[in-house]
Specification:
Blueprint: E1 3-9, H1 16-28, E2 37-39, E3 49-50, H2 54-70, E4 73-75, E5 79-83, E6 86-95, E7 98-104, E8 124-127, E9 129-133, H3 143-150, E10 155-159, H4 167-181, E11 185-188, E12 200-206, E13 211-217, E14 223-229, H5 230-243, H6 252-255
Parallel strand pairs: 1-2, 2-4, 3-5, 9-10, 10-11
Antiparallel strand pairs: 1-14, 5-6, 6-7, 8-9, 11-12, 12-13
Helix pairs in contact: 1-2
Length: 257
């Protein structure tokens, strides 16, 4: 398999009527169309989007066209998406020109509680490699990649929206989830203030007697092309799964001194 190529777009935040023009501009000016994945941030489109509304349908038609023409998977970030009467923070996953499914945010952040309905399932998709999508805050929780990996995921994509003052904490989470599970993670933020971009990709190096995590920060580059070594990560991940007992609680007797 070798490397997979991810086009990371730190899209500024904007209303839906500007998002379609922005998407066309960015993808038409991309230096390379030889990519496996295109990834946008969380909620870079600021409007609530009804699933049957023209703004959402027009945007998704263009995203589907790009996926078909480039032969890539497109994760267009997440949207405040009203589906089946519920408002969810949802990330569509577009494969081969079609919406293959959605990943709804499971762990809602403070301001989202009471506004959005949380998701209840971690989905794994396949394009070039098996991958999962963790929407922003979901990356904070150790269960997420563990469940995704046991479902076959080999790459974790993380559309995010992180304020600049929390970048150091966010990067720690990305590196930790990558290192503890031996899975590459690509986390993409918006350039708009107070978020400030600085997206991160976490990759792994096998030192023979241990593993190093390498966190590359994307600074203020609006578009970055990333090469992810999947073959190396796949071997490390398989070893980690064998080592992980999957036991995360103890009986009262076991806790007693």
């Amino acid at each position: 398999m070798g490397d997979v190529r991810v086009l990371a777009v730190q899209a500024p935040r904007m209303p839906a009527y500007d998002a379609l023009k922005y998407f066309r501009k960015i993808t038409e000016s991309a230096a390379s169309r030889d990519v496996d994945f295109v990834l946008f941030p969380e909620k870079w489109v600021t409007d609530e989007l009804p699933q049957d509304g023209s703004a959402y349908l027009d945007l998704m038609n263009n995203i589907s066209k790009l996926s078909r023409e480039w032969g890539c998977a497109v994760i267009p970030g997440s949207f405040p998406l009203r589906r089946d009467g519920m408002l969810m923070n949802a990330s569509p996953v577009v494969l081969d020109g079609n919406v293959a499914g959605f990943q709804e945010k499971i762990s809602l952040f403070r301001s989202e509680i009471g506004k959005y309905v949380p998701g209840n399932e971690i989905n794994v998709f396949s394009h070039a490699v098996k991958f999962a999508v963790a929407v922003c805050y979901d990356i904070d929780f150790p269960y997420y990649p563990k469940v995704a990996i046991r479902k076959g995921a080999e790459l974790l994509l993380n559309p995010s929206l992180i304020q600049r003052k929390f970048h150091d904490m966010w990067h720690l989470y990305v590196a930790a989830r990558s290192l503890e599970n031996r899975i590459p993670v690509v986390s993409v933020n918006s350039l708009s203030e107070p978020f400030g971009g600085n997206s991160a990709v976490s990759m792994l190096t096998d030192a023979g007697d241990g593993v190093f995590v390498n966190l590359e920060k994307l600074g203020q580059h609006e578009v970055s092309l990333l090469n992810i070594d999947i073959d190396g990560a796949r071997q490390l991940m398989a070893a980690r799964v064998r080592e992980d007992p999957g036991i995360y609680s103890f009986t009262k007797a076991e806790r007693s001194p």
